[in-house]
Amino acid sequence: MIRKPGLIRKRLQRLSIRAIAGALFLICAGWCSVFAADATSPEVGNSSSSDVSGDIELRGRVVCIPEEMHRLHKAHLPTGHTHIYGFKTVDGAIYTLLRTKNSEAFFADERMRQKELIVKGRVFPETAILDATPLRTVRDGVIYDLYYYCDICAIKTVVPGECMCCQQSAVLMETLPGSLDNFQPR
Ligand SMILES: [Zn+2]
Ligand SMILES: [Zn+2]
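A: This is the predicted complex of the input protein with zinc ion.
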């Protein structure tokens, strides 16, 4: 049986229209169920927390949470309280800082707690706990890269203390972005 090419084309057109309509329906149904789930689900945090648990950048300062709670909300502190460090963003949100290898500088290096910082990290789902890494500092409106540097080995790191290679103590550096490329080790 021989079909006229025109007839086949028409059939194909009809088929593709049907396919597009079907796809549109599925997309609509998908969106509707997403909205329905959002509206009815008591665990709204689930959808938003997965958004913030990835890498985010926050600008602010390291604060002592007990002192901040005393200052803001008159929390009664014992004399000689234990410092619990958190990160307070420029918007006023406060996250508890988890002490990890990457966040060690906030705990071990007092200078980090005196700077305005830009950190990158993640907030764990269903918490306000931040796993942060120092990234940059802001001074007089200028943004600097912030890192520890061993000029013997030319190693740049976020971890304070001794150089992992030569054990000389690494120096805290603030440099304009990209300027390390031209940095001359002494
Ligand atoms: Zn304190
Ligand atoms: Zn070194």
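The longest strand covers residues 129-139. The radius of gyration is 27 Å.
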